């Protein structure tokens, strides 16, 4: 019963062990579903289930019929046009990161958007090229087509194409990698593996994207300076590219450098204005479109290509090209890279989609997002596009300009389509250095994540360490190996956190039912002879030894050592009793010798197995209080602990290996007459122990209690009951077989206590 009294409450209930609570409240025996049960449920079919599957597989069927034409259509059209113009420019710019002709970036900005319109669950993200994915695909392209001769040899051997054009070969490699990445995403979605994104923490993604921004920056230097830089894909490739750039810096094309720097400054300034005055501006200033139009006109009007020998986009063939047939050999060579591309692409898209779903209160499905992304990449790669995800800046444009649904995405795809089939030739005079500057202009947000370090350091040093190491791995090893190393390091930090948990000793605070770390409070209450130990992590094979050591450090002694010393002392006492050297009188023991000592040989012959067994005094006419001053120089360490409470409220699981270790720990304490109680576990925890035959005559399931306070009250009641049985008036009537050596040098039994007399 709970009675509120102002801002306090009074609870009146019995002291519950786990067993008693289950008996009083009629605990049910639940049936745990087997694999067969789950398969039956999965294969069950009904009209309602079929409808649910149809709507989840094609989310457009759920939101399109409810589309508000009058309220949303105009906003979606405006947003779609703005987003489409940005998508065109980003597609051209990010194609340079893939090291393929810019025109193919338009395919990556078109096909995935169409597929996502039908299959995606987010209403606000803009699907298309993303600089990090473009860099990862570009690294694979460079590795498989490092030089003209090597590329020809590679593709001849794999029977990929008879075309000798290096650009064509690069396009086919990029498309093949995109198709395989899409297949991986599609399979993961079908198999309901969307949860894998949880293994990429926010700190890891932040550090990785910042490192990718550095790679993008370095990769664009050759276009800004118009230098011929050899490709590098091995670890330390970033530094090799920098060395190559600065070793031929004197060959810089001044026109390209000046153009790119001017555009960079303008783009950064206007983006800052958009950010600072976004509340006052009706729509963000489309600075990318403005500088592209101006730069294209200036380049064409002043004939920059002929006069200054600048590099331009060149011929852009109108329309679409025939789909490709992916190479099996490339699949085999790039499976690891494609898996990383698939995971990163999904993680970024799902993260952005989650932000907008929370902001506008609608659900998204991670598995369906995988299917949509996978199908989009398969379709886009088949038509010579490269891997797509979502661009943070492009999604921001779509949302900030009033986009309500993926109708805006469809409109943006139409804008891209118009450029592909009709007006793409107008961009042929545009300098590649302009595209490089536009690509770098989108990196501000990624580079500004450096400020995350200070925030993470204040919040969690482990997260900060993950960010720093991910950044270092990705910069030094490259994006592919860097991602793998970062995930491995992150999992290692999880192991460290659980392998070396911050265990603590608890004490009662405020004489209530609240127990906190005894180091954090000055006014605490600790029942005499009771210790409360808290473990804040799962217990498994890797940390059971650490748990045991922390427990020993907290209580101040090793129970196994105490047990062995007591068994050795018991052996001596038993020998004295058998030889008649101890006489029992109504007044106590009388020792008839001055001293007794085992031979060294006898002491050395004590077997460890015998010393580790429970203490058995049934063959003696008395029991022994081991905290007594034992006679005949028999020394056994005294302990001031009679009850140990283990707080397992934060222990989520226990594996089989740690079960054996935990049982050994409990047995060691029980055998030295220290009662052990475990509190805070759920019923599944106890059920698992029962299934694994954890309990026996020593370790019983009655040691489990609901809360720490239940266990403490049980201990205090048990102690009071034991004390109340003492009756000094029965001193004369005591039987000889009931005597016990006690702590104050006396003999006592369960009913009485008499002084001891020792004769020397």
Separate helix tally = 31
Biggest beta sheet summary: 7 strands, mixed
Instruction: Pick out the low-confidence regions.
Output: 148-164, 725-760
How many structural domains can be distinguished in the coordinates? 2
Q: What percentage of amino acids are in beta strands?
A: 5-15%
Radius of gyration: 38 Å
Characterize the overall form: elongated
InterPro entries: S04_transporter_CS, SLC26A/SulP_dom, SLC26A/SulP_fam, STAS_dom, STAS_dom_sf
Transmembrane segments: 77-98, 104-121, 171-191, 197-218, 254-271, 338-358, 407-427, 465-496
Protein name: STAS domain-containing protein
Pfam families: STAS, Sulfate_transp
How are the elements arranged and paired?
Layout: E1 2-5, E2 8-11, H1 18-24, H2 35-43, H3 47-57, H4 60-63, H5 69-97, H6 105-108, H7 111-119, E3 127-128, H8 131-144, H9 148-157, H10 166-190, H11 202-225, H12 237-247, H13 254-276, H14 287-301, H15 304-308, H16 328-360, H17 366-382, E4 389-390, H18 392-400, H19 407-423, H20 432-441, H21 444-447, H22 452-459, H23 461-477, H24 479-499, E5 504-509, E6 515-517, E7 524-525, E8 530-534, H25 544-555, H26 559-578, E9 582-585, E10 588-591, H27 600-604, H28 608-611, E11 622-624, E12 643-647, H29 656-670, E13 675-679, H30 683-691, E14 704-705, H31 708-724, E15 739-741, E16 746-748, E17 753-755
